[in-house]
Amino acid sequence: MEKNITVLPGDGIGPEIIREAVKVLDRIGEKFGHSFHYTYVDIGGCSIDKYGVPITEEGMELCKSADSVLLGAVGGPKWDDCPAEIRPEKALLGVRKALGLFANLRPTRLFPQLADTSPLKREIVGDGIDLLIVRELTGGVYFGGHSTEEKDGELVATDIMPYSEHEIERIGRVAFETAMKRRKRLASVDKANVLDTSRLWRKVMHRLSEEYPEVEYSDVLVDNTAMQLIKNPTQFDVLVTENMFGDILSDEASMLTGSIGMMPSASLSEGTLGMYEPIHGSAPDIAGQNLANPLGTILSAAMMLRYSFDMAKEADVIEEAVNAVLDQGYRTGDILQEGCKKVSCSEMGDLVAAQIG
Ligand code: NAD
Asked: Is residue 191 flagged as an active site residue?
């Protein structure tokens, strides 16, 4: 298969971790007979320095016309004082909007070998955590009306939280399809005891669950979910939720692993085009020193193969290679444990690529 990937290395450790993900993709290409063609585009601070904007219009077009987009990270202290309209993050929001990315997939995976890096006790994390949050990304209270007005001598602020049936149905479908590709369990998270948007959410999810009889479906209230993620995270497979609940719960879930450098993510559109990136930032404190953990980016590339290119076997091979390298005791500094071998960013990429065979 031939695929065109627009690559956005970005700032800080971005170029270092992207280099390792591309190394691993090339290895997959050789092994399985695929050709991945990369077009590199500046994004964030490096683009501000060169062009005065965090991404050029031409760069944005190259994202839209690609089969998929792979991103490193943007930002850093050098650009902290830029005016709001040209800040590095502005480019990310712009790409998300231009590509119509409405579904954010955030796996939380605690590899059993890294159980000691979790802030949770060993008896709670058991053989490792493997759950995935599907968050609606373009609706709800973040995109409803916002106003602050004076009433009866005091300020009153209002944020509106709209959701339409079609918005709920399309994210629900992504969640059921994702559950079908995993352990076939889906928990839908809402606040249906209070909110109308949640009652509509539940109604649409129940309707969809009839189309997916193989998926074991349940409703969970958001406050209970926040507790269960700490008390018994291994009960979950896929969780689906609206924008704000997903924002909060996915950050809570990411902390269960204790290692931000390991966490991938995917943002999907209605078609197969998606944007794939590690959840961490540009880590300016370790940039340019070959110290970063590239595994979150390598696992993001695996998600790209699985969700945009329908290459499940190839994605499995990358995930198994990461698992094997951890089993052999190799660690970057952020996940270093006693008795393990410390490796650099590029050595970690080499090890994963070599493991693919
Ligand atoms: P950060 O995620 O960059 O770093 C937080 C801590 O985690 C740092 O100590 C860093 O060294 C460490 N870390 C992060 N990724 C790592 C990796 N792969 N390997 C080893 N250690 C790693 O968060 P921050 O310091 O709050 O933000 C730095 C910059 O990144 C800011 O400009 C921020 O705006 C930006 N940022 C960008 C994104 C993005 O591009 N999606 C996301 C978050 C923050």
From this structure: yes
